[in-house]
Design goal:
Length: about 90
């Protein structure tokens, strides 16, 4: 175990460390259009859930930070052909 790893907690060593990021889907109000990213993302090792909320124009990606990092999640989203919006509306 790497002591420099911020997720290196002795009592959770075998448990996932789940993080969720919100990705804006500005201009994407069609649920089918936004959900096209779900299947490819769910096949990425470490991503555990993808939820789409067209009401707030956002995709919420939950991932295990021990298996994949935020930047890799972003890259996986770009590989789906989806271009995230600048800011999610609240």
């Amino acid at each position: 175990m790497d002591p420099a790893d911020p997720h290196n907690l002795h009592d959770t060593a075998d448990h996932p460390i789940l993080e969720t990021v919100q990705i804006a889907t500005e201009g994407q109000d069609c649920r089918e259009c936004v959900e096209r990213v779900r299947d490819p993302l769910m096949r990425v090792n470490g991503i555990t859930d993808v939820k789409v909320d067209e009401n707030v124009q956002a995709v919420f990606v939950t991932f295990d930070a021990r298996k994949i990092q935020n930047a890799e999640v972003h890259e996986a989203i770009l590989r789906t052909g989806y271009k995230p919006g600048a800011v999610a509306e609240s």
